[in-house]
């Protein structure tokens, strides 16, 4: 990719200066309550275009990824934008220049506070966050509304609240409590909500919700039971009361049992791994790509975050399917849902990826097994199955 820097032009006084950037447009994903957002900005610099793509994490990693494209971008803009923002499961919401600068400044300051490095090249965005843009209270509220998807149910509100609470995300908590400070988690560091189960109780004078939350804290698994009360105002659900009932440490085996779910797996032989990987990157740029000791994993996420709006929330509920390419030239295609694996099979044909592979076997497991294989040290899936 051509990361050409700002063009230098010569003035009458022989002093070099950068071309002025003119704001064209910007948008942000409405995924703030999931803890992450993506942001896109389009500038004009003279007669040429300049595009910036940002990835922000509101929990531990702050401003953690950045890409830019300058000038004639071809199809690379779409690929980079999808890679950074396409898998977040959100809609794009238009924002103005001040809002974009405000978001960037906040996350740059977060990195400074947590002593986290900023993505390179910093020179391409340092002017955008050199000072805090002043937004009124109503403007800040409007921006937060853009960054958050609509809260349409009690279950969705509760699951997001517990996610933000265990993540120690104060801004996220206040958004869900109508600025009320309800802090139910006293851990020193942010932790992850792995699973949450909600039970609704109707009493004569009130409705309450009892939640059983599985979290991993300091290498230990805990179940926390919380009682929550809500209030609906202006078609929004707000958390009004929340207190912890109990806490219990459980073993990794017990946690694994709680997280288990059926898994559908197709195993293929790959004829040309190099071309297959090249094509799957080009045709599915929105997938998350991770490299492991025994192969490469491509994770495809759902188009939205509707999994949060359920009585049972699971961290990996946003996963549509996984393509794992082993070092022994196997493709392990996996999903927790039969419909998804069927659609993934069709996608192989539609995306012209079927020409590289031959189906070996279709399997169904009562519990999830792919990630165990990935970390097992085996490179052949059938060798792994013969030993378990």
Strand content bin: 35-45%
Q: Taking strands numbered 1, 2, ... along the chain, how are they ordered across the largest sheet?
A: 13-14-16-17-12-18
Low-confidence stretches: 1-17
What is the string of helix and strand elements?
EEEEEEHEHHHHEEEEHEHEEEEEHEHH
Tally of helical segments = 10
Strand count, sense and barrel status of the largest sheet are: 6 strands, antiparallel
- SS elements, strand count: 18
- The portion of residues assigned to helices is 25-40%
Q: How many angstroms separate the termini?
A: 45 Å
**Rg from alpha-carbon coordinates:** 23 Å
Overall geometry comes to globular
Overall average residue pLDDT: 91
Structural class, by secondary structure, is alpha+beta
Write up this protein.
The chain has 388 residues and is of the alpha+beta class. The protein contains 10 helices and 18 strands. The strands form 4 sheets. Strands 13-14-16-17-12-18 form a 6-stranded antiparallel beta sheet.
Give a short overview.
With 388 residues, the chain is α+β, with helices and mostly antiparallel strands. The protein has helices spanning 76-86, 97-114, 137-147, 154-166, 170-176, 252-259, 273-283, 338-350, 370-374, 381-387, and strands spanning 8-10, 16-18, 21-29, 36-45, 48-57, 62-70, 92-94, 192-202, 207-217, 220-233, 236-250, 263-270, 288-292, 295-301, 312-314, 319-326, 330-335, 357-365.
Keywords:
388 residues; 18 strands; globular; 5-stranded antiparallel β-sheet; 10 helices; alpha+beta; disordered N terminus
């Amino acid at each position: 990719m051509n990361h050409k820097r700002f063009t230098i032009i010569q003035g009458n006084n022989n002093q070099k200066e950068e071309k002025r950037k003119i704001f064209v447009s910007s948008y942000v994903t409405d995924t703030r309550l999931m803890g992450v957002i993506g942001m896109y900005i389009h500038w004009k610099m003279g007669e040429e275009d300049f595009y910036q793509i940002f990835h922000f994490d509101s929990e531990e990693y702050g401003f953690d990824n950045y890409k830019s494209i300058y000038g004639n971008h071809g199809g690379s803009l779409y690929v980079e934008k999808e890679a950074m923002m396409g898998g977040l499961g959100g809609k794009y919401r238009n924002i103005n220049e001040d809002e974009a600068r405000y978001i960037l400044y906040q996350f740059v300051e977060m990195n400074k506070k947590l002593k986290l490095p900023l993505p390179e090249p910093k020179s391409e965005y340092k002017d955008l966050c050199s000072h805090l843009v002043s937004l009124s209270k109503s403007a800040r509220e409007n921006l937060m509304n853009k960054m958050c998807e609509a809260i349409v149910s009690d279950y969705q509100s509760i699951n997001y609240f517990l996610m933000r609470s265990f993540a120690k995300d104060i801004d996220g908590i206040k958004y869900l409590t109508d600025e009320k400070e309800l802090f139910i988690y006293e851990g020193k560091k942010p932790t992850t909500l792995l699973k949450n189960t909600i039970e609704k109780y109707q009493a004569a004078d009130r409705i309450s919700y009892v939640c059983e939350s599985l979290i991993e804290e300091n290498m230990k698994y805990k179940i926390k039971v919380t009682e929550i009360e809500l209030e609906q105002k202006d078609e929004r659900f707000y958390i009004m009361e929340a207190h912890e009932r109990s806490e219990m440490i459980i073993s990794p085996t017990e946690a694994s049992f709680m997280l288990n779910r059926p898994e559908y797996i197709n195993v293929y032989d790959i004829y040309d791994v190099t071309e297959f990987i090249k094509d799957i990157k080009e045709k599915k740029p929105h997938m998350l790509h991770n490299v492991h000791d025994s192969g490469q994993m491509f994770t495809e996420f759902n188009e939205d975050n509707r999994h949060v709006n359920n009585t049972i929330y699971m961290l990996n509920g946003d996963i549509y399917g996984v393509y794992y390419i082993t070092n022994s030239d196997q493709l392990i295609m996996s999903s927790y849902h039969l419909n998804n694996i069927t659609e993934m099979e069709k996608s192989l044909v539609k995306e012209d990826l079927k020409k590289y592979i031959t189906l070996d076997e279709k399997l169904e497991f009562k519990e999830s097994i792919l990630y165990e294989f990935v970390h097992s040290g085996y490179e052949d899936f059938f060798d792994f199955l013969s030993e378990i």
